[in-house]
Amino acid sequence: MNKNFYINNRNKYLDKVEDSSLSLFFSNQLVQKSHDQYFDFEVEKNFYYLSGINQDNVILALIKDKGVKRSVLFIEKNDPVLVKWVGKKLEIEEAKEISGIDEVYYLGSFDNFLFSLYNNSRLSSDNLQNLYLNLDRRNDKGYTNQALEFSKKFRKEYPEVKILNSYLMVVEMRMVKSEEEIKYIKDAIRTTKGGLNEIMRSIRPGMYEYQVEAYFDFHLQYTGNFDTAFTTIAASGKNATILHYDKNNSLIGDNDLVLFDLGARNNFYASDITRTYPANGKFTERQKEVYEEVLNVNKKCIEFLRPGVTWKEYNDYAKSLLTEACIRLGLIKDEKELIKYYYHSIGHSLGLDTHDPTNHALPIQPGMVITVEPGLYIEEEGIGVRIEDDVLITEDGRINLSSDIIKEVAEIEEFMQNK
Q: Which of 107-116, 118-127, 246-255 has the lowest mean pLDDT?
């Protein structure tokens, strides 16, 4: 991504905040996995969206004072010993080039920097009055993050300063994608298509789910060092009725349908695709019946999407279609029973996160990328079907970015029987 993308994002963000304010964004820290190992680092996406820096223990400071905008970055100084063990982190000039920020300093100077903004030698009325923090909260009593912990400490030291939340402000910016962001998503979808083709060529009854999954992983790494956007779901038979099944360790039966919910990501921009295939290359009549109903809902929901549609309207429309489908399939008699066979929303935003955070109070807008993922999960029949596409909202409608990934029954059977 060109550094001008991050410069523009910071300028747009600073246009939104109050004057006389400091905004802090933390990149995230490494999390201990075992005594001598850390989990793979995952950068905080709002920080990344504003800086382009993918490294732990970095702080982005954005200042707006008397209308003047200022960006400052604080990075760790390289330790010569750690460089030999785990490799070199960004140097100041490298961080400047990636982020487009001229003021880059080492972390050791951050405390003095903060003190100077709120305790300088000028009249106290000239000190900054506000602090914005990226306060992402979860409905989990044990959850915390750097911004939440920093807010507790800062509030004790500076009770006179107003603390404001920048999280939703950046989220709303992220909802609408630029052409460059859409290109990365398209690249991830293209790679996902190749991985799914490998799955269709390789799958057969008697394999374990994880063996089929391995063909997708290999394709991602072999074709361009893409990584998976999330933990792959490879669910055969009854396992496909478990929404977030990820054990992927069952033996695939001869007449099983296998549901694959997976994606690649490129520069953190994700794809999220679901396809359901017959293990032996041929749908049974009942499987085909269920599959065609879900596919019909998938197509109609894609056509339904356009600017101005609310998330509630989108979900309600999908539920009405799935209710009709379940009645035709002889599964239910009215909408109240639908939850037995369909128990998730129809879609979500897609971007730097697979489930990109979204302000659902706002209607769907041009530039958003949204998933369409209807499903039916019939546990008593061992049939789970979900079909998911990634759709770009345009000024006058929508474009299915994953339309090249086959999903018609005839296309799937032909591909699998001629592999």
A: 118-127
- Give the range of the structural domain holding residue 316, as residue numbers without chain letter: 176-417
Above 70 in pLDDT, residue 125? no
Which DSSP letter does residue 231 get?
A: P
Cβ atoms within 10 Å, residue 249: 11
This prediction has a pTM of 0.95
136 and 55 together in one domain: yes
Q: Is residue 170 a contact partner of residue 17, using CB atoms and an 8 Å limit?
A: no
Based on the domain organization, do 252 and 333 belong to the same domain? yes
b/e code 91-105 from CB counts within 10 Å (16+ = b): eeeebbebbbbeebb
The answer, yes or no, to whether residue 198 has pLDDT greater than 80, is yes
Q: What are phi and psi of 269, to 5 degrees?
A: -80, 125
- Answer yes or no: do 126 and 196 share one domain: no
Task: Report whether pLDDT(123) > 50.
Answer: no
At 144 the three-state DSSP class reads coil
Final residue belonging to a domain, choices 173, 189, 207: 173
